[in-house]
Amino acid sequence: MTTARLSAGQLDPSTSLIRINEVVAIVGLARPTIYKLMSQRESGFPLPVKLSDSTARGAPVAWVLSEVQEWVRSRIAARDKVAA
């Protein structure tokens, strides 16, 4: 994980970058499902940040931790809205 450090060793989620395996673990979805959600703009799933200038398929990318966490929160809120 690429990290931005705060005091006392804490990480700043708004500047912490996570790779696909961490995204999979956080959201509980398979890698192909994550990429499918990214292609569906209405899903609101965050897009990755390019980690290099390469335009080649498979070039390294990462996601902003806070954006992934916010997407999870939005899914919880949508569930709660339907349940209410």
From TrEMBL:
<dbReference type="Pfam" id="PF05930">
    <property type="entry name" value="Phage_AlpA"/>
</dbReference>
<dbReference type="InterPro" id="IPR052931">
    <property type="entry name" value="Prophage_regulatory_activator"/>
</dbReference>
<dbReference type="InterPro" id="IPR010260">
    <property type="entry name" value="AlpA"/>
</dbReference>
<protein>
    <submittedName>
        <fullName>Transcriptional regulator, AlpA family</fullName>
    </submittedName>
</protein>
